[in-house]
Amino acid sequence: MAARTGTTRVAIINSETNPPEDATADLRRAVSGGRATVTELPARTAARPVPAGHERGPVLSHLSLRMVLLKAGVVAADVVTILAAYTITTLVVGSWAGWTTSEVDDHLRIAALTLPVWPILFARQQMYAARFLTRLMDELRRVVHVVVVGTVALVLVGWLAGTELAHGWVAAFLVVALACVTLERFLVRRWFVHRRRSGRSLRDVVIIGTNAEALDLALALENPALGYRLVGYVSTDPTATGSIDGLPVLAGTADTVAFAHSLDAQGVILATTSLEVGLSNRLLRGLLDGGLHVEMTSGLRDVTPERMTVRPLGRHPVVYLEPARRFGWRAVAKRIFDTALSTVALVLTAPLLLVAAIAIKVTSPGPVLFRQVRVGRDGEPFFVLKLRTMVVDAEERLAELLEQNESDGPLFKMRHDPRITRVGRVLRKLSIDELPQLWNVVRGDMSLIGPRPALPREVAEWGQELHERLRVRPGITGMWQVSGRSDSGFEEYQRLDLFYVDNWSILIDLGILIRTVPAVLTARGAS
Question: How far is it, in rounded angstroms, from Cα 210 to Cα 222?
Answer without folding.
Answer: 16
